User: Fold this.
Amino acid sequence: MELFFQQVVNGLSLGALYGLIAVGYTVVYGIIQLINFAHGEIFMIGAFGALTAWLLIPGDSLSLWMLPVMLLAGMAAAVGTSLLTERFAYRPLRNAPRLAPLITAIGVSVVLQEFIRLFFGRIPGFPDAKSAIVFPQIDYVTGLAIQLGPITVQRAALFTIIALVICWGFLNVFVNRTQVGRAMQATSQDPDTARLMGINVDRIIMVAFALGAALAAVAGLCWGLRYTNVEFRMGFVAGLKAFTAAVLGGIGNINGAVVGGLVLGVIEVMATTYIPGQFGGSAWKDVWAFVILILVLVFRPQGLLGARVVDRA
Amino acid sequence: MTTMPRLITPERQQRSDPAAGWVGIAGGVVLAASAFLPWAYAFQALDGMSLFGYPSPLQILGMVLGLLVAGLIICSRRIKPRAKIRVGWVRGAKAAGTGALVFLILVTVAIALELGGLVNVVWGGWIALLGAVIAFVGTRLMVADPTPTLERATLPAWLEILAIAVVMAAVLFASAYVLNLDDGGAFVAFLAFLITVVAVMLRTGAMGWLSAVSRRHRQVLILSAFVVAFLFPFTQGGSDANMSIATQILIFAATAMGLNIVVGLAGLLDLGYIAFLGAGAFTAAVLSKSAFSTVNFHPPFLVTALISGLVAATLGLIIGSPTLRVSGDYLAIVTLGFGEIFRLTMGNLDGENGPNITRGPNGIPAIPNLEAGGFDFGKPHTILGFDLGRFANYYFLLLIFLAFVILVFTRLNNSRIGRGWVAIREDEKAAEAMGVNTFGLKLFAFASGAFLAGLAGSIKAHVDVSITPDQFIFLESAFLLAAIVLGGMGTVLGVLVGATLLKLLPEKLRFISEYRLLAFGLLLILMMRFRPEGLIPSQRRQLEFHEENEELAERIEEEVEDTGALKGAAL
Assistant:
C-alpha cells in the first residue's frame, strides 16, 4: 500500500507537467481546431529561455531569487515564439483546407528544434545544445527529498504540483471572470457570432496561443528542475503525451486538460509499476501512454469531462 | 509578384516594348558570348571556368540561356502569329531572362563561396552577370503575348512519338549528368538551369503541347519513361555510388506512392506510415536467412514479401478499424502515436523487456542478398559489356516494384473506389448520404497503403542489409508526407519528383548537411504558405486551394467535357 501511495504521488507530479502543457493544446484547438503540433517545442523553448536567463546572469547563483527571473524569461521566450509562429505560419492559413496548417505545424516543430540545436551553443559562453544540458538546481525547490511519513516526495515534484495548482486557479479566474477570458469562451463556441458581438477574434486567438505558451514555460522550468537537464528533443514526446492528456480530458475543455494530465500521469506510473512480467517496467511506459491515447479516442472521443468543441468541419 | 510595388506597369511596357526587345536580345548575346571568357579566378571553382576560349559545361549552359532569350525574342518579332495556334514567345523569353539572372547569381555566389570572396569572380563573370541583368530588364519591359494555345497543334504521329523520345532522352542525359556532379554549387546551378528550361517550356506552351501529345500517345510515354529508367544504370559505368542513391530514391518513392493512396486520394492524414514500412522490413529481416534471425522459418523471398505485406496490412486494419471512425485530426495523432508504439515495441522486443524477436535496438544485421534462379543480387554482373554492381541489381527489382505500385495507384484512382475516396476527401457527410460506404473505403485505403509499404519494406531489408528500430522514427514519416506535399498530392508524377528531390538534395548538398533539417522544416512551412497544392498539382487539387481562380475552373470544366472524365489526377 505504501508503494501504491508513493506511485500516486509520483504520478500526480508527472501528470502536473502534462496538464500544464495540455492546456496549450486545448485552448488553441478549442478556438481554431488546430492541433498545434509545435506546442511541445514551445514547452522546450520555455525551458531554454529559463536556462538562458540563468546563464546570462553572472555568478552562477542558485539562490531562490533566480526562480522568478528564470520563470519570466522562459515565459517571454515561449510566448514570443508562440506569437511569432501564430502570426507568420498559422494565420495566413486560417481559411486553408485543414491539412495545410497541420503540415505547417510539423514544419514549425522541426524548425524550432533545429534552431535550438544549431544556434543555442553559438551564443558566447553557452553550452552546446546538441546533447542534454545540465539545468541549474535552484536552492529550496530542489535538493533533499521531503519525507511525508513513508512517502518520499522530491522537492521539484512538489514544486510542480504547487505550480499546477496556482496556474489552475489563475486560469479559472482568467477564463471565467475577466472580459478577455469570456471573449475567449465565446469565440470557441462560435467565432462568427463572437465577431458580430464586437470581439476581435484575431486578438483572442493570439491570447490563446500566449496563454498556452506561458503555462508551457512553467512546465519547462519544472521539467528542468525535476529531471536536472534539458534537451532540444524533449518537446516531442512530452508534447505528444500532453496532447493525449488534452484528449483524455476532453479537447477544448481547460479543466479537462488538467484532469486529463493528472490521470494520464498516474496511469503511466501505475502501468510501469503494476503490469507484471516483461511488458511492465519503464521500457514500456511510453507505449502504454500511447495505447491509452488510442483507447480513449476509440471509446470515449469526447474525453473524461466532455469535449467543448463544436464540429464545424 | 503580386506583393511587389508595380514598378513595371502595362502602360510602361506598351511604351518601351520596341526598344526593350533589342535590349533583351543584346543582353542574351552578351551572356552567350561571355561563355568564352574566364568567369572565375581559379580552376577549382565549380567546373573549371577560369579559361579563355574554352567554356566549361556550366558556362555552356549560361550560353544556352542567353541564346534562348535572344532566340525567343527574335522568333516573337519574325514569326507571324496565327489565329488558332499561338506560341508564347515573349512569355518564354521572360521566363528565360529571369532564369538566366537566377542562374548567374547562383554561379557568382557559388564561386565566391568556394574560393572565398567575390574578388574571385573575374571580369568575364561580371560581363555574364551584366548580360543576364540586361536580358532580365529587357524581357521584363516587353509586352507579353496572349495565352499560348500550342496544345491545339498536331503533327504526324511519328513526329510526336519522336518528340516524346527526344524529351525522354534529354531526361536520361540530364539525370545521369546531375548525379555525377560532385560539386554542390554546380549541382544547384544545374538545377536552376533545368527549372528554367521547364519554365520556358511552360510559358511558351511547349509543355502544354507535350502533355497533349503524351495524352494522345499514353502507352508510348509510359513505355519510354520505363525504358529511360531502365537504361539509367548503364550510364553509370559500373559505379555503385550513384546507384545506391538511386535505390534509396526508389524505395522512398514507392513508399511515398503508397502513402499517396492514403493521404492524396482518401484524404486520411497518416503520420505513422513509416511503421508499416518498418513492419514489412522487420518481418522480412526475421524471416531471412540472416544468422541473427530469431525464428526458424525461412521461406523463399516471394513468400516472405507476401507475408511482410500481409503483416503490415493486418496492422493497418488493427489500427484503422477503430480509429477511422474518429475525425480527421484525431486520426493524425492516433497514427502518430501508433508509429511511436511500433518503434518503441521493436526496440523492446530484445529478450529482456519482451520476447526476443527483433534483438531490440541492435536490430537484425547481415541480411543476405536476394537470389532468384541463380541470379545473385549481391554480385556484380556484366550485361552487354556494361558492368552492373549490387545496387544496380536492386535498382531493377525496385523499378519493377515501383511500376507495380504506380499501376495499383492509377488503377485504383480511376476506378469506382478512387471516385469514392475523392468524394470522402471532399465531403464525407455528403459522400455517405450519396451511398458511398465511407468506413469500408477508408479502411481499404488504409490497409492497401499499408500492404504496399510492407512490400517495400521487405525489399528494403535486403537492400539495406541491416534493419534497426531507429530507422523508423517519426521524422521519416514526416519526410514521406513532405514528398507528397512537395510534389503534389494525389498525382504520380508529383510524388516521383518530390521523392527524388527530397532524397537527392541532401546527398548532393553536403555542405549544408548540418542545416538539412532546418531547411526541410522551412520548406514545409513555405510550401504550405505559397504553393500548398505542390509543384506538380492535379488541376482539381489546385482549384481547391485557389477557389477564386475562375480561369482555372473553366479550363478544368473544358477538360471534363473533352474527355468525359477527369484525368488530371492521373499522371
